[in-house]
Amino acid sequence: MNEITGTLKVIGQTTQYGPSFRKREFVVTTEEKYPQDIKLELYQDDCALIDEYVTGDPLKVFYNLKGNEYQEKFYVNLQAWKIQSTSGGGEKTEDTSSSPKEASVKPTPKRRGRPPKKADPQVETTEDLAKDVPDLADAPF
User: Is the pTM of this model over 0.85?
Assistant: First the structure.
């Protein structure tokens, strides 16, 4: 079993190839002395496995090494099939390619995008704050 641990750097869009094949790429930066950016791929229904994560999340990705020849050129792909959070939140996705023995509980997915803006705190005062500053004594507020 192959696995890689690192930080999620890039999440690509799902691309449709013909009527029956989908692929999605993502990049994980390893946590080594010399970090590497590793591109992995998700196929078909597994394309949704990365939806619960955002860039910067620490991950452990399980993958299969795939090789093929096309027009006398050779290609190697890393096909991800399971993704786990390494931030202590436990497993966030389920293993879709191995035995159904291990059922996982899906936690609430992370929100994507910016957090909602908090309202500025309102300060109520009845005293005249400008009375002690001579330059503000004639200010319009």
Answer: no
78, 36 contact by CB (below 8 A): no
With bands split at pLDDT 50, 70 and 90, how would you rate the model's confidence at 118?
Answer: low
pLDDT tier, 20 (very low <50, low <70, confident <90, very high otherwise): confident
Banded model confidence at residue 133, pLDDT cuts 50, 70, 90: low
Residue 100 in this model has a pLDDT that exceeds 50: no
What are the strands, taking DSSP E only, across 72-124? 73-85
Other beta carbons within 10 angstroms of residue 57's beta carbon come to 19
What contacts 131, CB < 8 A, 6 or more positions away? 137
In this structure, the number of other CB atoms found within 10 A of the CB of residue 85 comes to 19
Q: What's the token pair of residue 30?
A: 């390893």
Q: Residues 6 or more apart from 87 whose CB is under 8 A from it?
A: 57, 58
Single-letter amino acid code for the residue at 35: P
Domains in the chain, CATH or no CATH each: 1-136 (2.40.50.140)
- Cβ atoms of 32 and 57 within 8 Å: the answer is no
